[in-house]
Amino acid sequence: MANNSGKKWWKEAVVYQIWPRSFQDSNGDGVGDIPGITSRLPYLADLGINVIWLSPVFASPNDDMGYDISDYRAIMPEFGTMEDFDQMLETAHSLGIKILMDLVVNHSSDEHEWFEQARSSRDNKYRDYYIWRDSSGVDAEGKPLPPNNWGSEFGGPAWEYDETTDQWYLHMFSRKQPDLNWENPAVRQEIFEIVRFWLDKGVDGFRLDAINIISKPEGLPDDPSVVPGKHSSSIPFVIAKGTKVHEWMHELNMETFDKYDCMTVGEMSATGPEEAVRFSGFDTDELHMIFHFEHMGLDSDPATGMGKWSYKPYQLTEMKEILNTWQTKLDGRAWGSLYWNNHDQPRLVSRFGSDAPEYRELSGKMLATVLHGMQGTPYIYQGEEIGMTNVQFPAISDYKDLDSINFYTDMVEDHQTMSPDEAMSLIYAKGRDNARTPVQWSAEENAGFSSATPWIGLNPNYRQINAAEATGRADSLWHYYQKLISLRRDELQDLLVYGSFLPLDAEDAQVYAYERHGEGGKLLVLANFTDQELERSYQALGQGQVELLLSNYADQEELADQGLTLRPYEARIYKIS
Ligand code: NOJ
């Protein structure tokens, strides 16, 4: 049995997520690739991160941009070759950077050989690699009806009818992503072998995609929360009612990860802190940490029944309640991961800060301070370090993400439940392509991403917002991230990584304040989430020796006893000893 309660490299890591298609193109086809990543590794080393989470680079027809894998042991030709991959891994390691792969094994692509075999006949030996069921009946016109009422994550039913064999297969995501049947021991063995293949190659761990939905509820009963005509996903139902996920996570860990010095993080929507402790508790032998989603729902309106495709402004008090609860419930029991955004979420400054020119960097620094000040392993999503913003393309035809396209088709074209403007404004606020426009490296043509027209539009603000500008200016957001990372990795590890967390003033709707307590004393983290000047006072400022470690404003006021004035989006970290 492993015990994960002590110091570990993966607790001290700062992770940077790369979504390869939009990171850096090297061969002029408008698509990011692996040699492009290799060429940017010195940039990442300079920023100070020491782990990369690489979104999928495996062979894929790209229905869901690589999250539909057709060969788990091959590299997508658009991204390069296995030699390119080996070269990238070697260069990363020589710079002290580890690489996590994205393990997408709740489902495969329907173009994976297993599925092509499986769908060919009911008695094919791969049939049971997937989840097949008979129709539940026929409708008034005699057309077959799906086995149950489950909705898929990307809209529409979670079942697809297969005429050849007159049965339906389950797909919790798109119809080109059939769910693998984990009940079948042969499937689990295949997955263990894939994991070992990559670990033997020298990769340093995995992010596990949608891993808490692998166990489906016994008997596949109807999901009572599905509302016809709404965008109802049955994923929360599957998560709540599946019974074998811990058994299988344990088995996967013992058969693979546990035999290597690697890092694991499981993606888990609809999961609270007590369940997280079951997955990533220090003595559970399942995973090192999970990504929870609770703060990702803060700006959705549950009353609409539309899940993420709804909008309401978020409340800071609700954000604090969620994040503080996770901090205190995991402390001493399990390790957590810290993130504000990824390839599925809107851009950070546009969503939780301000992307107005005068506040974009200030609010980006403030949000970074809040996250990197917490206990857990922080994750930075590509472009976050330069404050990239959401994008508003004029027409739905400019969008590439099937989630946004399906939503628009469903609401505007098929059912006319929303006007085109209403649907576009939700896509502007929530669509995944916000995060998927090419990284803005410079003000040059195509933002230095590619010599060709990129596969998806650029955010037109690349002439102002880009890495060349940000790395060349000492007070930029980029340099602020560099400082935060070095504080955590070097100077203040005992406090910033391992210190315990004490929330302050939970009811304050404008300022996020908390303390970290540990061997080297304590830290006070303060963050003004508004564009107003605010007067506050904190007891800790009147105790012991108070030193300002970091702030997003150049000049600082003299502290008057315990009181201070926080300017718009101001953030500070004090050390008190
Ligand atoms: C979560 C991934 O992050 C997302 O991009 C993908 O669409 C789904 N899982 C399905 O693999």
Compose a concise summary of this entry.
With 577 residues, the protein is α/β, with parallel strands linked by helices.
Q: Which topology of the largest domain does CATH recognise? A: TIM Barrel
Shape: globular
Helix content: 25-40%
Kindly state the mean pLDDT as a whole number?
Answer: 97
How many E strands? 22
Taking the alpha carbons of the first and last residues, their distance comes to 38 Å
CATH architecture of the largest domain: Alpha-Beta Barrel
Q: Describe the biggest sheet?
A: 8 strands, parallel
What's the CATH C level of the largest domain? Alpha Beta
Overview of the structural elements:
Helix 2 (34-47) runs parallel beside helix 3 (82-94) and helix 11 (360-372) packs parallel to helix 15 (477-491). The chain has an 8-stranded parallel β-sheet with strand order 13-12-11-5-2-1-15-14. The mean pLDDT is 97. By secondary structure, it is an alpha/beta fold. Helices cover 28% and strands 16% of the residues. It has helices spanning 9-12, 34-47, 82-94, 113-118, 185-201, 235-241, 245-255, 273-280, 316-330, 348-352, 360-372, 402-414, 420-430, 467-471, 477-491, 493-496, and strands at 15-18, 51-54, 58-59, 71-75, 98-103, 132-133, 137-138, 144-145, 159-162, 167-170, 205-208, 263-267, 289-291, 337-338, 377-381, 500-504, 511-518, 521-528, 534-537, 546-551, 563-566, 571-576. It folds into 3 domains: 9-106 and 185-399 and 439-477, Alpha-Beta Barrel (TIM Barrel); 113-170, Alpha-Beta Complex (Oligo-1,6-glucosidase, domain 2), CATH 3.90.400; 500-576, Golgi alpha-mannosidase II (Immunoglobulin-like), CATH 2.60.40.1180. The structure holds 1-deoxynojirimycin. 1-deoxynojirimycin (NOJ) binds at residues 64, 67, 104, 173, 209-210, 267, 343-344.
